[in-house]
Amino acid sequence: MPLIRESIVATLAADGRPHLAPLGVIVEGERRILAPFHPSTTLANLRRDAVACVNYVQDVRIFAGLITHRRSHWPLLPAERVRGFRLEAALAHEELELVDIVEDPTRPRFRFRVVHAAVHAPFDGFNRARHAVIEACILLSRRHLLPAEQIREAIAALAPLVDKTAGEAEREAWTWIRDALP
Ligand SMILES: Cc1cc2nc3c(=O)[nH]c(=O)nc-3n(C[C@H](O)[C@H](O)[C@H](O)COP(=O)(O)O)c2cc1C
Description:
182 residues; Pnp Oxidase, Chain A; 32% strand
């Protein structure tokens, strides 16, 4: 299995407005692959306008905020080489242009080349609460697929990691997750 980096992907809506979504970026050598599920806004945006900015962040409130519909809180800056935007909070970002699409009825794979990459701030180390928040966000993003009880149990099992190792940002993200439990 290839390496997957959990990121925040910025695409452009039909009216030119930015759309942010947490997405796994599959790393295939120099190429990046995005595999958005059908149907999703990211998929529709990529079909219409095949550019994307991938943002690598450590503020997990952005993952939790997007999954719990807090869409307007995340400042953006213009991208350098493609039409679009990147997150101001990105530690690093990559700007992508489409190479080809491998069609699939549920999850087409968009393969990109990196046309610009930049580092903006240092990575300050691993943190278990951040990983817990990301796992909880993945569970919440599958609300329509998984039984509610299974999601609640899996998120409860992650809570000790937040209790033991969270800072303020991770605690805030966790309150949004708890409020959104099915
Ligand atoms: C860490 C993380 C990774 C995700 N990766 C993917 C992915 O690779 N493909 C996908 O379709 N959805 C993924 N999701 C779920 C989407 O973020 C979610 O379905 C979101 O609503 C995207 O839909 P939108 O483009 O309509 O906003 C992921 C969610 C999280 C929290």
